[in-house]
């Protein structure tokens, strides 16, 4: 996409020698502008999406990509002045370069992350290069379209500018809609960007080699044919090898024990672990479940909230069935509702033999039902229930991950409190207290701002090390060493303990809870403010 690139309104003296009438030529040029704008925006969105997945903190990554690209587009517009004397061949070479760099950007970015351990510098480099190339398009196209005037004909150059930018902006709209609704779900990140590059190369090369062929020297025609053939050959070869590349990169990231790898519309789901060994479940590259210590997390999350009436329970998130496993161990539980955004996680928890064994076949229990929905939307649609829930368990990704921020807002907890029965309890996974104390205490302050009384506590004893923190931007602080939780209730402050009918636990006891509460209070960060939808306060 091009944003108001500076163009000259002067018409070149010599008209272009075209094989078609000027009006037809103008239409063809505007069509190529449309295609190139769509491709340019796909490159831009691909960088933002892949950077958010690989690096984390989507707001920061989008800001970096967009700001660097817009800056680079201005540079590209200025550099294009040197090519205007040979606008046709310059545009042809420019589009070939853009097709190769833009089309291969996702593949190289992923390779840099998989084998190099980071992708920040590659992200900035591609944003800068693609921005320069996109910025140089419009000045060259403006030169070409103005040269289609008949000799001596007076042209309304402001109309040329309007037509050019209209085609550019409409193409950007189509590219922006095609990326999330067509390219990403059908082709994925890597193949989608490679196919976009091929379309870009064909459109730019065909326009110059056919429409402006009379303006090219024999040497220039030969150069453009060879360059475009090489670019298309490279993109085609890369497309054919994408499957092998993805498998090799996945092994580099997750190790040799990858058993399941699924790309859904929402995230990448990977399950690793040798037969007979512990299972690891990764969502978008972040370790969410480890069979080595998940019981410590889920026992600490679920059982303190079950002290009191627990006939009806709702779990927000937790499609893996592990929190439900702990809830269903209580004979007094009559119904459990799991609200999970990604149905593929639930299907995996039902059908994968290792994960199903780990969750105790929770999804086969007749007391459990699954609602596939966004937790925020689901709570808003519930309103005030005739039969509210005794326990609400928020088993959601850490608040530092940008898409999760709304699920840790004051508005979200206000909605959650509406579905709580009198005397009911809400428990929230609030992220690691050791490495992200401010985010943890922001969760606690936000619960209090929503009118709830709180009991903060933590669980220690991690046996699995995260390869990344809750957001990849936090890699520098190292893997978390604990889990932080907050128990909350309306009215009276909830008691922190275990129910009289608590089943046998592997790691949790009243003494462990008391120690976890004292430890959390000792790490309190004073002066934190609640987080809202319009003012999220979770920082790295």
From TrEMBL:
Pathway it works in: Amine and polyamine biosynthesis; spermidine biosynthesis; spermidine from putrescine: step 1/1
Ranges in coiled-coil conformation: none
Residue stretches making up the PABS domain: 233-490
Record field: transmembrane: 27-55, 61-80, 92-115, 121-145, 166-187, 193-212, 224-243
Region (Disordered): 516-540
This enzyme's EC code(s): 2.5.1.16
Keywords on record: Cell membrane, Membrane, Polyamine biosynthesis, Spermidine biosynthesis, Transferase, Transmembrane, Transmembrane helix
Location of this chain's protein in the cell: Cell membrane
Chain residues that bind S-methyl-5'-thioadenosine: 267, 340, 374-375, 403
Membrane topology label: Multi-pass membrane protein
Family matches, as SUPFAM superfamilies: MFS general substrate transporter, S-adenosyl-L-methionine-dependent methyltransferases
Name of a matching Pfam family: Spermine_synth
Record family assignment: Belongs to the spermidine/spermine synthase family.
Official protein name in the record: Polyamine aminopropyltransferase
Species annotation: Streptomyces chryseus
């Amino acid at each position: 996409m091009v944003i108001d690139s500076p163009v000259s309104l002067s018409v070149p003296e010599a008209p272009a020698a075209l094989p078609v009438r000027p009006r037809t030529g103008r239409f063809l040029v505007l069509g190529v502008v449309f295609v190139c704008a769509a491709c340019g925006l796909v490159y831009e969105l691909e960088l933002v999406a892949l950077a958010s997945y690989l690096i984390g903190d989507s707001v920061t990554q989008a800001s970096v990509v967009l700001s660097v690209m817009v800056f680079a587009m201005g540079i590209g517009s200025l550099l294009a002045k040197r090519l205007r004397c040979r606008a046709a061949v310059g545009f042809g070479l420019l589009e070939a370069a853009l097709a190769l760099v833009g089309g291969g950007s996702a593949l190289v970015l992923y390779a840099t992350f998989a084998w190099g351990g980071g992708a920040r510098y590659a992200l900035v480099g591609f944003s800068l290069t693609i921005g320069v190339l996109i910025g140089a398009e419009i000045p060259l196209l403006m030169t070409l379209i103005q040269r289609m005037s008949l000799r001596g004909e007076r042209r309304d150059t402001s109309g040329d500018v309007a037509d050019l930018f209209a085609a550019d902006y409409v193409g950007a709209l189509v590219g922006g809609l095609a990326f999330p609704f067509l390219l990403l779900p059908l082709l994925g990140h890597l193949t989608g960007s490679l196919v976009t590059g091929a379309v870009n190369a064909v459109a730019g090369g065909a326009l110059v080699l056919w429409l402006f062929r009379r303006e090219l020297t024999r040497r220039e025609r030969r150069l453009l044919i060879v360059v475009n053939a090489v670019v298309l050959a490279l993109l085609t070869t890369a497309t054919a090898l994408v499957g092998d590349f993805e498998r090799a990169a996945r092994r580099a990231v997750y190790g040799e024990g990858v058993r399941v790898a699924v790309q859904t519309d929402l995230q990448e789901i990977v399950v690793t672990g040798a037969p007979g060994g512990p299972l690891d479940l990764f969502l978008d590259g972040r370790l969410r479940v480890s069979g080595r210590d998940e019981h410590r997390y889920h026992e600490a999350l679920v059982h303190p909230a079950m002290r009191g009436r627990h006939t009806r329970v709702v779990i927000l998130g937790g499609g893996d069935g592990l929190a439900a496993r702990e809830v269903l161990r209580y004979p007094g539980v009559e119904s459990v509702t799991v609200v999970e955004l990604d149905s593929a996680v639930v299907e995996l928890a039902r059908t994968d033999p290792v994960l199903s064994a780990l969750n105790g076949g929770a999804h086969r229990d007749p007391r459990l039902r699954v609602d596939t929905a966004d937790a925020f939307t689901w709570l808003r649609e519930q309103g005030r229930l005739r039969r509210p829930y005794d326990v609400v368990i928020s088993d959601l990704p850490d608040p530092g991950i940008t898409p999760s921020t709304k699920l840790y807002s004051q508005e979200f907890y206000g909605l959650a409190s509406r579905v709580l029965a009198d005397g009911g309890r809400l428990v929230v996974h609030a992220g690691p207290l050791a490495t992200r104390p401010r985010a943890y205490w922001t969760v606690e302050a936000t619960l209090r701002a929503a009118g709830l009384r709180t009991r903060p506590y933590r669980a220690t004893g991690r046996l699995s090390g995260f390869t990344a923190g809750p957001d990849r931007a936090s890699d520098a602080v190292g893997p978390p060493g604990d889990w932080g939780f907050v128990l909350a209730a309306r009215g009276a402050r909830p008691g922190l303990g275990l129910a009289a009918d608590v089943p046998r636990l592997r790691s949790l006891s009243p003494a462990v809870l008391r120690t976890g509460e004292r430890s959390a209070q000792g790490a309190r960060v004073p002066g934190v403010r609640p987080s809202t939808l319009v003012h999220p306060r979770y920082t790295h």
